[in-house]
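Hey, quick one: can you model this chain's 3D structure?
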Amino acid sequence: MTQANGKAPALFWFRDDLRVRHNEALAAAADRGPVTAVYIAEDPVATGVRPLGGAARWWLHRSLERLIEDLAGGGVPLLIRSGDPRRLIPELAARNGASYVSWSRRYHRPQRDIDAEVKESLRSGGVDAHSFPGHLLAEPWTVATGQGTPYKVYTPFSRALRSVVEEGPGPGRLHLEQAPEGLAGPGADPEGSREDLAELALLPSHPSRREPDWTGGLEQMWTPGEEGAWRRLGGFLAALEGGVGKQGYAEGRDYPALDVTSRLSPHLRFGEISPLAVWSAAAALEADGRDVTVFQNELMWRDFAWHRLHHRPDLATANVRADFDAFPWAWDPGELAAGTAGGRDGRRSNRAAAPGDFHADLGAWRSGVTGIPLVDAGMHELWATGHMHNRVRMVVGSLLTKNLGIHWRHGEEWFWDTLVDADPASNAFNWQWVAGCGDDAAPYFRIFNPETQAKRFDPERTYISAWVPEFGGPDYPAPVVDLRESRAMALAAYEGIRR
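Sure thing. Here's the predicted structure for all 499 residues.
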């Protein structure tokens, strides 16, 4: 099939790159001919791809809504399907007469294997198929030690990655363009796309889910989509250039009551903005050099997690340090499914819990009723907004895995379900880091004391008061654990596996 302009149709496959600007794969499709775009919700049974958590499903729905409108302006239709892309992509390419198919790369098995099968199937059928970078600052195979092995320690990794980024062809080439040159399609059907999107049943309010609508706080706080991502970046960069308050970003980012962080993580997670575009926009600022460097370090930490996942696809289920396989963490493989079955509120376990049973402690942790105010504040923020300040994430993770002695996988699963920015790399990597069993992890004996952390980083209890107004009153619960005693027990358990 050839269009009147002499160019054959092209098919573009959206995944975690829900943007028009700075999208090399989309630009390549636009260069080849009229573009039809597709998004596929991959069947976890057929593909082995991990299903999204509830908060991420909400974000995806809202982001796709906006992408439909963004593409419709150029007449590009967005087809929304569910199933196995190994079957659907070749079928859609044939149905649309596409001679060219492109997409942005993924880095986690089984997604990598799926993409390789799709590419082989298309090419064997005479369709030109190509993948492009776009989700990371650098491809995992381009950053390696002198021996050609992947880095396992962040500091040397960050030095090597910074060199790759700064010596590259220049990340700013596309990021200010409104759209790839010549992006156009055969005609959009936004209403049909919205109907197909509704069929995915991503929102808790969908009749098939039978859940209470818990998304009010998310709707109030976030604006998913490419425009929202650039607006968020613009506001952050303006603040960064202005000094971000008296403490600056480098120091102020550790104080949860201060609004100095970028909050770009969910936009980056769904690819609504390119990390290279963010990097280059920050680098161009006339701002405090340390603030910019520390912010870029956060972007590189994200890459570090993805590079490690590329080489350790079991990051969400297996200890990186095998000696921790013998650590006596409390673990129940069916607990989360039992706690959330039938649309029930999974914050409290539905398992019968005797006094001292870890299920009760896990339920208290999820619900933010541990009696430890900084932890409770973080868990309340998470439940209300789908987000938690990074400093507080470390504190709540340390309490769960070290003071309460509960397996980090229970925390990883809960964050996967409740964070809008939960991605396969950062979520698992950071949980293993705080638990002490991952790559370049915090030493196990580094146990975050929530009381000390609160005194240092929330000295006026501004953050705690905002999220735990009942603190100090008669209804506030007593602590579920003695911090000093539980720390000693955690260190003794660690000594046990070291011996």
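One thing worth noting: The longest helix spans residues 289-311.
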